[in-house]
Design goal:
single chain, globular, mainly alpha, hpI Integrase, Chain A, 3-stranded antiparallel β-sheet
Amino acid sequence: MLNRKELKQLISTPKWKKHRILIALVYSAGLRIGEVSRLEQRDIDMERMTIHIRQSKYKKDRVVPLSEYMKKGLQDYYQQVCPIKYVFNGKATGSPLSIRAIQYLFRQALRKTSIQKPANVHTLRHSYATHLLEEGVDILTVRDMLGHEDVNTTLTYLHVAQFERNRAHSPLDSLYDWRS
């Protein structure tokens, strides 16, 4: 998992806007590498602020929120690059960027950072899930956003999430306003 400082460094490292946007999008929506490869422009609804991930693992669709930062970044990227059909086009017109190309550009970006821990494109998805849990998003919502079939798969992220410990108390104390 990458911490927030490492993610900022990784996202800002690539020379090309396309690569910066791709890395940011994978993290911002918790995408699998195949999902970002096949993501079409029609799947991003800038008005509703959603990303529709179609026929992913288990042949299921899911919808995740679109970050305000991603919306702005994608609008700038679309204006500059004018992609056809897919958000990230491959070499052949109308083809998606390959999984290998995505892995390669990620490795190139990672090499240019000071990050020493091992990481790959899927690490961005792990970081996304862990950060959501740390920010208080409930486990069932995170499961749905990741597209997990079983909540036990999502529960693995609880082991790496770092939570501040709350002072133990009795729920009776918060049930009544006894101080007044």
